[in-house]
Design goal:
With 496 residues, the chain is of the alpha/beta class. It folds into 2 domains: 6-240, 3-Layer(aba) Sandwich (Rossmann fold), CATH 3.40.50.300; 255-491, Rossmann fold (3-Layer(aba) Sandwich), CATH 3.40.50.300. 33% of the residues lie in helices and 25% in strands. It is built from 17 helices and 20 strands. The strands form 4 sheets. It has a 6-stranded mixed sheet, sandwiched between helices. A 6-stranded mixed sheet has the order 16-17-18-13-19-20, with helices on both faces. A hairpin with a 2-residue loop joins β1 (6-15) and β2 (18-28). The model has no long low-confidence stretch (mean pLDDT 88).
Length: 496
């Protein structure tokens, strides 16, 4: 029987009063793709950070090739052949491809031998069948190409264990396919791959075994062939799939928003739809359909060239986000880390930022007591899990970050809420909670526009669905008539 490369045995880790990991074990074999599943906060990130030397375990042991090994820092991990690539590639844009591949090397001497470096880089890329010019700048690379460079960097360091943490979150379907081809080549070369993803279809298409964590504890390890989406989710969250989509039947209220002949040259053309109070209108479409551009124009970040927006029976021209907020429109961006939150700031400060004037006295000083009162109300209302409201947003799990973004914009008291990919990059448990929040807001009479690339989500949560393709509106489907087949048919340019 093949011997394991890496064994994490009985690993425990505590941060203050929080038990992040408790008696967790994980075994990785050469030439296997091992999926690691769990909700945000299940302990996946902590386990990865222990494997890569960022954290040290309080208890437990790490074995490499059967020998007890101490990994005290990232350089120790690198020396032992352990590397990680993440959702956002760590590429230096001002360096070329070859320089990025070898930037972490400490054994190539004090003088750069450029010809040798370019030859070595080209050889590594050729071994992996990656077609990139080693002398080209990294600045213009696609996300998929950046991921490929990260993998080449790992191979250049003789990596034996490669951790892939949500590597497909920002990739198109074609780019995912290319990444998986590369991953399988690594498997053939005997590299052990730990694959973390919230996309079940990806897990089952590429994994050999699946391990599930919940609340910092080991739940199960099974061959992927023996795992179903339902059983994996049940292990992750202790609930059945029936609990995940929560849209209730709502009574359509008064017409809130009417968009007619909405166009922006070379971006989108002749968009027409309505949103009523208490209604969720989903926007579906393939990559490049320009759904987000319509939302940005409605919120005043971009401006349309023509068309009308009618809000509460009044025709309005929205030229800025400030104006949109005054009109009762809020927009939750798909990029919560870069645009949705100020990561070094506290939960409290993030929630109050859009309405800061509300919390300042006549001398311009922030009334912290009122700020905290508001933040506490949203923590209770949206079930934000944090040790303290003064905890920085950057330290929260993805699901809790999304709840803070929602709180931030709900604090503006909108009548129309635009949600752009509201559950991207969060686990199934947090996704269910966000769905419940959306449902409750609709029940309270808020109008909601929800843009999502997750078709089951759109179908389950929407009262009506606007289907777009390359900037054009292809169909509007009522909930009762919408199916995956009809939505995809329209999204691909056919008659729905």
């Amino acid at each position: 029987m093949t011997k394991p490369i890496l064994e994490m045995q009985h690993i425990s880790k505590r941060f203050g009063t929080t038990q992040a990991l408790a008696d967790v074990s994980l075994t990785l074999y050469p030439g296997e793709i091992h999926a690691l599943l769990g909700e945000n906060g299940a302990g996946k990130s902590t386990l990865i950070k222990i494997m890569t030397g960022i954290h040290r375990p309080d208890e437990g042991e790490i074995l490499l090739d059967g020998r007890s090994t101490l990994i005290t820092n990232p350089l120790d991990a690198q020396a032992n052949g352990i590397a990680a690539i993440h959702q956002e590639p760590m590429i230096f844009p001002d360096l070329n491809v070859a320089e990025n591949i070898f930037v972490g090397h400490r054994n190539r001497g004090g003088v750069v031998r450029w010809r040798q470096m370019y030859r070595d880089a080209a050889e590594i890329l050729a071994r992996l069948d990656i077609k990139l010019d080693v002398r080209s700048s990294a600045r213009g690379l696609t996300l998929a190409a950046q991921q490929a460079v990260e993998i080449a960097k790992a191979i250049s360091l003789d990596t034996r264990v490669l951790i892939m943490d949500e590597p497909t979150a920002s990739l198109s379907a074609h780019e995912v396919e290319q990444l998986f081809k590369l991953t399988r080549r690594l498997k053939e070369k005997g590299v052990s791959i730990l694959f973390i993803s919230h996309r079940m279809e990806e897990v089952f298409s590429i994994s050999d075994r699946v391990t599930v964590l919940r609340d910092g504890r080991f739940v199960s390890t099974h061959p992927a062939a023996e795992v179903t989406a339902e059983s994996a989710i049940r292990d992750m969250v202790g609930r059945h799939m029936d609990d995940f989509f929560a849209k209730s039947a709502t009574v359509r209220g008064d017409l809130l928003l009417s968009v007619r002949n909405f166009s922006k040259e070379n971006v989108f053309h002749d968009i027409n739809f309505d949103v009523h109070a208490g209604e969720v209108v989903g926007f579906a479409g393939l990559v490049g359909s320009r759904r987000t551009d319509v939302a940005l124009a409605l919120f005043g970040i971009e401006t349309a060239d023509s068309g009308t927006i009618t809000l509460d029976s009044q025709t309005v021209a929205i030229r800025s986000p400030q104006q949109a907020v005054k009109l009762g429109i809020a927009y939750v961006t798909e990029d919560r880390r870069q645009l949705g939150l100020t990561m070094p700031m506290s939960i409290t400060t993030n929630i109050s930022l859009p309405m800061l004037r509300r919390y300042t006295n006549r001398y311009g000083l922030v009334q912290r007591k009122e700020e905290k009162k508001t933040a506490e109300s949203f923590r209770e209302r949206l079930n934000i899990r944090a040790a303290s409201l003064e905890q920085t947003a950057g330290t929260l799990s993805g699901g809790n970050q999304q709840k803070v973004v929602l709180s931030k914009w709900l604090n503006t008291q909108p009548r129309l809420l635009i949600l752009d990919e509201p559950t991207r990059g969060i686990d199934v448990g947090a996704k269910a909670e966000v769905h419940h929040i959306i449902d409750e807001l609709a029940q309270q009479g808020m109008g909601i526009i929800m843009i999502s690339s997750d078709l089951p989500e759109v179908l389950a949560m929407s009262d009506r669905i606007v289907v777009m393709r390359e900037g054009r509106q292809m169909a509007i489907l009522d909930r009762r008539e919408a199916t995956q087949e009809r939505v995809m048919t329209a999204a691909m340019g056919q008659t729905a």
